[in-house]
Amino acid sequence: MTTAPESWNERLVKLALIALTPLVLGFITLHVLWGLLAAHVLFPVLPAGVRDFLVRLWARGVLLALGIRVRLHHDPLSTPLRETPGSLLLINHTSWVDVFVVASVMPTRFVAKAEISRWTLLGKFAGAIGTIYVERGKRHAVAHVNAAVVERLRARQTIGIFPEGTTTDGSVVLRFHANMVQAALEAGAPVYPIGLQYCQDERPTKAAAFIGDMTMAASLWQILMTPRLTVNLHWLPALDTAGHTRHAIADAARTAVVQALQLEPSVSAVAMAKAGDSALDPQPADEATLPSLQG
């Protein structure tokens, strides 16, 4: 008898979300156009601090339109966010929304596969705010990207990468590839593990997952139809990189994220073994799978 009101409530919420969808889509379109205009017209003449503030504000606007609330869990042992420019962030990857979540709390430039640059509006905006693009499958691609990342880190820009090389449904964390970690070692930059977990009513949900053959439209609709969607962002302490290899640092980052998200390490290990994804196959350093903004 107690479940009927909840069922009707959920139906009413869904009907309300459907009715609001045209307004939300209109707002998102205008918001993206405003961001694109600001990036091309205002950014060239604005100080770096103002540009970073506008990017954070823009990212928060996207999340507001999507109905996603960010809950920041800043480890007390971690450096205050304002003191972390010029860091390399190693982030587990679930959704295209991840970039907005991280950017909403810290001005971050991301490494993304070149296909993103061809997205009509978001691709242009991402390029305008400093996204580093890489052509997958091209020889020496990793070396070129690493050189760009080293330059950005030395210029005190924070760089975010998704070292799993693909997205998951959030229930596992795949192996962290170590290629991009080399840039932090060369630049002498701190490395921070970042854990993201999407929840609904305090329980992990797959609503934001962008995996398999899912289209952007299908993913957007699924997110908009999921009320009370929250993402927990775990900003973990910087890793000790002195005397450690990039592979050891990547493994330590993944372990820290798995523990922060309270995932079962053995489950992630089994998923890695069963995935059969090219991102998990050993490859030569120049050809290794690169982080992306999507699966």
Descriptors:
eight-stranded mixed beta sheet, 9 helices, 295 residues, Glycerol-3-phosphate (1)-acyltransferase
Q: Please, could you describe this protein's structure?
A:
By secondary structure, the chain is α/β, with parallel strands linked by helices. A hairpin with a 2-residue loop joins strand 6 and strand 7. The protein has 9 helices and 8 strands. The chain has helices at 3-42, 48-66, 98-103, 122-128, 141-154, 181-187, 216-224, 246-260, 265-275; strands spanning 68-74, 88-91, 109-113, 132-134, 159-161, 191-200, 203-204, 229-235. Strands 1, 2, 3, 4, 5, 6, 7 and 8 form an 8-stranded mixed β-sheet that branches. Helix 1 packs antiparallel against helix 2 and helix 1 crosses helix 4 (122-128). It has a single domain (3-287), classed as Glycerol-3-phosphate (1)-acyltransferase (3-Layer(aba) Sandwich).
CATH class: Alpha Beta
Q: Radius of gyration, Cα only, in angstroms?
A: 19 Å
Major sheet: size, sense and barrel closure?
8 strands, mixed
Strand portion: 5-15%
**Count, helices:** 9
Structural class of the secondary elements? Answer: alpha/beta
The stretches of 5 or more residues where confidence is low (pLDDT under 50) are: 273-295
Number of domains: 1
Overall mean pLDDT stands at 83
- Indicate the percent of residues in helices: 40-55%
Query: What global shape is seen?
Result: globular
Query: N- to C-terminal separation?
Result: 42 Å
* Helix-strand string: HHEEHEHEHEHEEHEHH
Assigned CATH architecture: 3-Layer(aba) Sandwich
Number of strands: 8
CATH fold name: Glycerol-3-phosphate (1)-acyltransferase
